[in-house]
Amino acid sequence: MHIVVCIKQVPDSAQIRVHPVTNTIMRQGVPAIVNPYDLFSLEAALRLKDVHGGRITVISMGPPQAEIALKKCIAYGADEAILVTDRAFAGADTLATSFALAQAIRQIEKDMKVDMVFAGKQTIDGDTAQVGPGIAKRLNLQLLTYVAQIDAIDLEKNTIQVRRRAENGVQVLQTRLPCLITMLEGSNDMRYATMENMFRAARYATKIWNKDAAGIEDVNKIGLKGSPTLVSKVFAPKPLARRADIIDTESNDPRDIALTLVNKLFTQHPKLHDSLRSH
Amino acid sequence: MAEKFDVIVVGAGPSGNAAAYTLAKSGLKVLQLERGEYPGSKNVQGAILYADALERIIPDFRDEAPLERHIIEQRMWVLDDASFIGAHYRSDDFNKPPYNRYTIIRAQFDKWFSEKVQQAGALVICETTVTELLMDDKKVVGVQTDRMGGSIYADVVILADGVNSLLAKKAGFHAEIDPANVALAVKEIHFMPQETIEARFNLQGEAGVVIEMAGKITRGMMGTGFLYTNKESLTVGVGCMLSDFKTQKITPYQLLEDMKAHPSIAPLLEGGEMKEYTAHLIPEGGYKAIPKLYGEGWMIAGDAAMLVNAMHREGSNLAMTSGCFAAETIIELMNEQKPCSTKNLARYQQKLNDSFVMKDLKKYQNMPGIFHANSQFFTAYPEMLNQAAHRMLKVDGIDKKSKEKAILADFRQRRSLFGLMSDAFKLWRAFE
Ligand SMILES: Cc1cc2nc3c(=O)[nH]c(=O)nc-3n(C[C@H](O)[C@H](O)[C@H](O)COP(=O)(O)OP(=O)(O)OC[C@H]3O[C@@H](n4cnc5c(N)ncnc54)[C@H](O)[C@@H]3O)c2cc1C
Predict the structure, then answer these.
(1) Whether B296 and B347 share a structural domain
(2) Measured between CB atoms, which of A20, A31, A196 is closest to B38?
(3) A30-45 pLDDT, tens digit each
(4) Which residues constitute the domain of residue B388?
(5) Is B124 in the pocket of ligand 1 (CB under 6 A)?
């Protein structure tokens, strides 16, 4: 089985600092990490490999330093890593990114047939959740997003069954391979890399692909040119000038406290009250 | 199959990096293990880099290392509750390249140094903790890490794992560290515009200032405070002996808060935005607390070896120099095809003894003991000095001779003539 996992290197948002003077984001000194959502997908892929064997190729589109993120994936147990990097990719939105990655996956497929593609549910720096589905559409893959669990894979019949979180419950879905999966956060815990894989990662030479190597001919579909998204403005929202209320309760009884809270909520938001009534 | 290297270096601080770089450059097969996410991630921000030690290892470091400001002025302050008396030394000589001392941000600097180590050919693996030394009888033959399949072998292991080396302790190379031999230092980084820093400290371009502080700020505990200028931030901190914190029952955080509120310090920090608060131990036991530095198949360098000159706040330079000596010892032995036995590794000790490292530490060997047993250096004296200055400078119709008399009487009353003389004698002996 051949699984491709798409990952992105992102700044660790927990450690991002805003420059107190210029109010711009200070990237210097902020550690870059593998997008946390991607790790749930990578671990799911690793578990499939544990059972079924095969190969995992991780792929990322990004600047040269994103190689570090790919090497981390090798340490976790991926077999190959490809960095798709080219100045021509600069300024890509999700449309252009999913195009470039889809093209690169087509190139990977020339080497070995791809059975599954994994992507992160979304990124912590863009939060669009569009790249995975974009790739699935372009490559004509069955799309399974928000997957909480992979129940079974039948490689002979080319089928897969997963549990997917939906708004009102859990869906048990079956479909055919090849498919694209994005895993739900918390669906698994990333393993602790073995010493052997740490050595492999430290010595691993990441494959670096420019746009030609990734099989991209039409430069109008990548980078800024291929990105119809316009960012009109970036700003930090002003904090609301609302004060916190301190509510006194009659007693310490949880029931009393809950009742006081609910009453207060309903008096302040009558519409909420009405809508709950009507249910 | 377990991996085998010529040398394993534990730790990617200044001592480990200096060792790994020197070894790898000579063509040896080197593995460096660091528990932090990346080199520097575990290291306290903001420090002074002494160019000399690094220059001997990487002569052209100035062209590429991330440096903040070169220091042109040193201020030494003795503080009373609301005043200080001090000496400033500023020299234009310090403002001419090649510069002698720099402020640095350790996380950035260590990362850069580690890149040099990797370029030199060492294999560097982070996020991996060495849990134990592998022994064959009494000889160290490798390390055990916290990862599955974690045994790795080498002809010799350099322990550069920082203060309170757990590995050396576990292997029985030295005993539990004495709280009277380590200082606990806390520091913060305060961001503010470059222009503000330059105006406040009378600086231009990349020049910088260091303030060293002693006196009432440490409340009688043995320790000092410090303030450095970085490019766009100030590093401010205070450190005292761990044993003192224990008996005084004050938190380091509170001590730093009080120090920052001192009327001579607060205006320097005003308007800055505090970004990081870190605490770290400094081995300050001095010469007498230095453990055994080598044995069958192992050497110990830097903070792990207690090589810190607390009197001059020098640590990273002793760390780099000792790391470099450890590496050179191994290179020599391997060239001569001799084993890294206790007998042969004695050359490491010799190199240290012949250098400023041991010479300086030996010179101040009695200092920690004196300051420890005589808290008047941190309480009564700062008060007396400040009050004397105040008396002399205040113009109030009293003649200067009477003022001198009053100052002397005050000194004697606070500390007997014998006490004053014996303190002076103790200090003189220790400095001699
Ligand atoms: C607040 C403060 C201010 C200071 N200011 C200065 C200054 O201005 N100038 C100066 O020269 N010195 C200063 N020092 C001292 C200086 O920081 C140290 O002397 C220096 O860092 C020692 O270098 P080292 O390589 O021996 O140890 P460290 O820098 O502590 O490096 C040890 C490394 O080993 C790693 N490690 C530890 N155990 C393991 C393990 N089991 N497995 C794997 N990795 C491990 C750690 O993560 C760490 O990265 C200061 C210290 C403090 C605390």
Answers:
(1) yes
(2) A31
(3) 778 999 999 999 999 9
(4) 374-431
(5) no
Nearest residue by C-alpha to atom 9 in ligand 1: B48
Own/partner pairs, A44-47, CB within 8 angstroms, 24+ separation: A44/A118, A44/A147, A44/A150, A44/A181, A44/A183, A44/A187, A44/A188, A45/A3, A45/A5, A45/A78, A45/A116, A45/A118, A46/A76, A46/A77, A46/A78, A46/A191, A47/A150, A47/A188
Could you tell me which residue, B371 or A272, shows the higher pLDDT?
Answer: A272
Q: How confident is the model at residue A64 (pLDDT cuts 50, 70, 90)?
A: very high
Of B45, B152, B282, B311, which is best to mutate to test ligand 1, by the most ligand atoms within 8 angstroms of its C-beta? B282
B36 Cβ closer than 6 Å to some ligand 1 atom: yes
Question: What is the C-alpha to C-alpha distance for residues A17 and A29, in angstroms, rounded to an integer?
Answer: 9
- Domain span at residue A278? 241-279
Q: Is the dihedral of CA B132, B135, B139, B141 positive or negative?
A: negative
Instruction: Kindly state if the Cβ of B316 falls inside 6 Å of ligand 1.
Output: yes
Looking at the fold, whether A247 and A128 belong to one and the same domain comes out as: no
| A66 lies in some domain | yes
Residues B24 and B113 in one domain: yes
pLDDT in tens, B113-147: 999 999 999 999 999 999 999 999 999 999 999 99
Both tokens assigned to B83 = 């005043």
Write out chain B residues lying below 8 Å of A29, CB-based. Answer: 105, 107-108
What pLDDT score was predicted for residue A17? 66
The pLDDT assigned to A42 comes to: 98
Site to substitute for ligand 1 among B316, B320, B322, B360, most atoms within 8 A of C-beta: B316
One domain for residues A278 and A187: no
pLDDT digits 0-9 by tens, B14-53: 999 999 999 999 999 999 999 998 888 877 667 899 999 9
Q: How far is B227 from chain A (nearest CA, A)?
A: 20
The answer to whether residue B323 is domain-embedded is yes
pLDDT score of A270: 85
Q: Are A246 and A137 in the same domain?
A: no
